[in-house]
Structures are given as C-alpha cells and as structure tokens.
Design brief:
The protein is an alpha/beta fold. Helix content is 41%, strand content 17%. It contains 14 helices and 12 strands. A 5-stranded mixed sheet has the order 2-1-3-11-4, with helices on both faces. α3 packs across α12 and α6 crosses α14. The longest helix has 20 residues. The relative contact order is 0.20.
Amino acid sequence: MRRCTGIALIAAAALALSGCSGSGGATTADAAAGDGLTPVKIAGVVTTSTVPIWVAQSEGIFEEHGLEVEMEPVQNFAAAAPSLLNGQFQFAIAATSPVIVAISEGMPLRAVVGTSATVEDPEAEGNQLVVPADSPLTDITDLAGKKVGTNQVGSGPYAAALASYVRAGGDPEAIEWVSMPMNEQLLALENGQLDAAVLAEPFTASALAEGNRPLVSLYRDPGNEVLAAEAPYVTIISSESYLAEHADVAERLRAAMIEANAVASERPELVIEGLVEQTDMDPEAAERLVLPAFVGEMTGEEMQDMADAMIDAGIIPGPFDGAAAVWQP
C-alpha cells in the first residue's frame, strides 16, 4: 500500500498534543473583541483556495456574521495540524486528501465548509496531467513505464491521477513517480526529465502558455471521474473538540464562507484582484488562470468520492465514512 507515513506521524504527534490541550481553543473563541466580534484564526497555505476567505474579509461578510477572522499563513497542512488540535488555531484550510489520510489515521478532525471545487467542463479544469506538445502519449494508460512528476506523493492531484490511471486499467507499479515542486516540473518537462507532470494552477496555465498540452483532467477524466462537478477538493476544517464546544462559532463561519464562495463565483474580478494583492502575482498571469468553482456546501459525498479514489490508489486502506468526516450544524 502507498501509505502517507508522514501524515501518520503528524497525526500521532497531533493526537498526543490534543490529549493535553483540553479546551480546543475555548479561550480564544469565548473572548469577544472590543467591537463584539468573535476572533477566529484560520491557518493555511495562501493559494487560490484562500480567495473566499479574502472575499469574506473585504466584503464585510465575516463582520455580518459576528466574526473577526485572521488568516495565518503556514507552509502546509502538516504545519497546521498540531496547532489546530492544541487550540492555537480554531480552523485550518487544507486539501481534502491529507485530511482524509489524517482522519483515517485517527486524527479527530472534521471538514466544515468547502472552498475550491471542480468545474463542469473537464477541459476547463485547472488541475491537469500535462505532457509536452510533441509527446506520443494520448491516453492516461500510456503513463505505464513513464516518469511522472508530482509535488507530493499522497497529495490530492497525485491521488486523482493515480486513481484515474488505475480505474482505466493501468498497473500502479508501472509509473515512476518523481517528487518535485510544480515550478521545477515545468523545466523538467522541457528538458525531457519528465514525461508528464501533475499540475494545479497557476502552474497549469504556465505550462500551457509554454506550449505543453493537457492529457487528462486530474479529477474529471471522463469515464474515470474522481469527483463530480462542483465538488469541493479543498476544505476548512476544525477539531472535533472545538466543534463540540463552539458549534455556534463554527455555524457562523460556515454560513459566512458559503456566502463568500457564492460571491467569488459570481465576481471573478474579485478573485483576480485578491490573488494580485495577496500573493503579488503578476496581473497578466492572474488573468490567464483557469479558476476553480467555489463551493461552500459539503454533503460528505465529495469526501467519500475522494476517499474511494485514495483507496483505489492504495493511499489509505479503507473503509472510510465520508458523511461522518463532514461536520453539520
């Protein structure tokens, strides 16, 4: 089995910390700011997926729901998980795949609300398996015997690519995976070190601008779909203890984010403005991005579908209860 041992170790450490924390962040949640707003910290990597948080801040949506939200940048989910469980942060934003691994390893986490989601048209997805323009590869099963780049073995795009390949009848042992940052994968494609690259935005747009072509949509390869259209693959999570003690705060955050996702979907110019302002992205590059859908509502089906793909890819052993992984007010 291709197990995510790094996440398993993180889960063990975080569980040990959570056993000592007790309150799950009660002090922060119970103390209202001077203006009567409840302060909340959300940890996460700054990406397109954090756009709805910026929208909720800039458009006053959090205030309308009685919240004062601070975004705390972190390197990755691994950096946020222990601090989430010991109460330093009340929420964290993460791709569903590492969250599923963590939950399957026993970490007491629940998804609360979504952000980035798949779109209707597979060819309009920002998550693509990309090959050079002159590549002989025409089908996902052609990856057998090839070198394929991924930013991290076990990541959502990796799991989606491998599950789609396995579902199409490919031998999972036949691919040579090469772990490297997405920006380095672009150069590796150009110089022939890689036959294909598993990419997400903004790197997909950069790869296509340089003349590469998409082979398959990672999450929505027709006939081998991992996720349905408008299914969140990034979520805001919290600990079970915090959700039990502060359901009112969680419900308000959930409602605010559902509203902010809708605004981000309706006003793509806000998304572009936020990316340029918050990440110093070049405005022209931001305009080229293939934006995801932004969906807040989560039913558990998206978690189940992603978990099923990860089981097919050998990342988790299963079974997994997607509905139980999502907190409902």
